[in-house]
Each structure stands twice: as C-alpha cells, then as structure tokens.
Amino acid sequence: MSTDHVRTLAGLSELLVGWLRRLMPAGPRLDGLTADLPAAFAGRHEPVDAAGCRALQECANVHSRHLELHFDAASAALADDEANGWPPPDPVLVRRRSAGVTAVRRLDDGTWVLTLDTLEPYGLARPYLDAAFALAQGSTRLVLDLRGNGGGDPATVAAIAGRLLGDDAHHLSDVLYRDRRRQWWTTDTPPGSALTQPLAVLVGPRTYSSAEALAYHLQARGRAIVVGEPTRGAADHVTPVRLTREVLGFLPEAEVRDAVTGGNWEGTGVLPDIGHPHATTLEAALALPAEPAQR
User: Fold this and answer.
1) C-beta of residue 258 within 8 angstroms of C-beta of residue 173
2) Element containing residue 50 per DSSP (H, E)
3) Is residue 177 scored above 50 in pLDDT?
4) What is d(CA 218, CA 215) in angstroms, rounded to the nearest whole number?
5) Any idea where the Tail specific protease domain is (predicted)?
6) Backbone angles phi, psi at 217, to 5 degrees
7) How far is CA 237 from the centre of its chain?
8) What single-letter DSSP state applies at residue 177?
9) Which range among 4-13, 27-36, 40-49, 200-209 shows the weakest confidence by mean pLDDT?
C-alpha cells in the first residue's frame, strides 16, 4: 500500500500489519497481531491522528508491549520502504547526560548505589560505567537503581551483567529474528575482577525494554534480589519504521529468550522478589540483610 493514500485508521492498520508480517518471527504473537488489528480497525475511516495512533498501539500492546506509534502532524519525513535500523547516537548528547549515569554514591555503611537511567551504546557509555563501577570496589553491597531506565543497547546490558555475574563468560539470551538467531554473552574478565557483593536491583513501571532485560537476567541467575514494582513487560527488540509522513513506529522484529529460563518478561514484566512502592524502594533494599546472593 502506498503511504500517500494512508489517511484513515483502517489504512494505517493495514499498513502496520504488512510491516509486522515483514519483520516479526512467525508464531502466535504475530498471528494475534495480524488478526486483532484488522478486526478492530477495518471499518475505522476517521483520519489518522494522535488519538487514533494511541488506539492502534493499545490494541497491538496486547501482543507486543514494545510496539509504539508516534504521531507528528508537522513532520515532513518520507515514509520508509525498508527498515533502516537505529540511527547512530549523537555523542554530544550521550556525554551531556553522562551516558545515563545519573548518580553514583557510597553510603555511610559502605553501600554502593548506582542510578542508571539509560543504557547508551557501550562504546560511548563505557568511560562513565568504568568510573561508576570503580567506586563499587571495596563496598559492602551493591544497589543498582533501574526505576527510571527506559532501556537501550543490549551490548551495554551484557557489559554490566558481566561485571556482576562473575569472571567467566555467561550466556545471557538468544534473540530470535524472522531469519536468524543472535546470542548475547558476557565476556571473560581477569580473575577476581567481577563484583561479588550482595546485589539489589530496583525496578518499577518506568523500567523498560533492555533495562528489564538486565534485571531479568540477574534475577534468573540468582545474582540479585529485585525490589520494587513490576516493570512494563516489553521483551521484544524493536526497530524504527517511518510508516507515513506523520507516523513513526517502533515495531517488533525479534523475540528474546533468556538462556536460563527459556522465557522472558513479555506482558508480565519483571516481577520483584520483594514488592515495594516506588517512594520507599531504596529504603526497602537497604533493609535487606547484607548476605551474599545465592549462586
């Protein structure tokens, strides 16, 4: 369908279904999306606007929590014929926000607390993460605060997990695309360099995408106690697609499978070991006994 003629919600739904068939691996979730969207929007002839995009997204989120549609009436961008992947990051912007390292501190009792709000590409994030983790040396325990983390680079997930899971390489996940499979591993590190202190990971409703992956992988391996509220439940890898001039989509192109559980957090979110409301999640983590996590 030419995007020049996509002016109604029915047309946008049809266009979206076509893209999903091109991108997603076969299976019940793709089947659900390609059945439910036409059934819900085939007769919707109202013009595409922000509210309509939200309605389409809500219908799709039953099957893929990570699918997003963004409407901009002033956009002059050309619609995509192919999925071109993510644009390169702006190093100036990444450095301006310290690659998501919002705060790092040592408390009076020796606890190390890192507030990490994005997972920027690892090549740019590494200096900031190195500095943050240097402060963890000699600490009594570790707290990783992901409550405001909207996700980012899986390579950065693997790098952080590698600092916390031990010196040997660990298989984290398989990512299943329509036509291929990719594995994510941590890397071997020098003996004795990994951090082994007790670890708590703080999560909540704003913990999203790759940030959920980091919490899930650490929890699944018994390395961390997860404290807080359930996360949003977006386990797909997505790619940006300009559907029409006005509508930018983030569309699922792959499913994640944790190497230990064989599953993921899609739809359910990462479920805390200790449930606690956002305002006092850190206090709840600090009240935990300072004992090593079970490995």
Assistant:
1) yes
2) helix 50-60
3) yes
4) 5
5) 87-277
6) -60, -40
7) 8
8) E
9) 4-13
Closest by CA position to 285, among listed 161, 146, 186, 169 = 146
How far, in Å, CA of 148 to CA of 100, rounded?
A: 10
Q: How many CB atoms lie within 10 A of CB 188?
A: 13
Q: Phi, psi (5° rounding) for residue 213? A: -60, -45
Angstrom distance (rounded) from CA 281 to CA 272: 11
Q: Residue holding tokens 């691996």? A: 25
Mean pLDDT of all residues belonging to the chain: 94
pLDDT confidence of residue 5: 59
pTM, full prediction: 0.93
Structure-block tokens of residue 76: 């002059």
User: Which position has the token pair 């997930």?
Assistant: 157
Cα(60)–Cα(89) distance, integer angstroms: 28
For residue range 229-274, list pLDDT tens digits in order. Answer: 999 999 999 999 999 999 999 999 999 999 999 999 999 999 999 9
Q: For residue 100, give the DSSP letter.
A: G
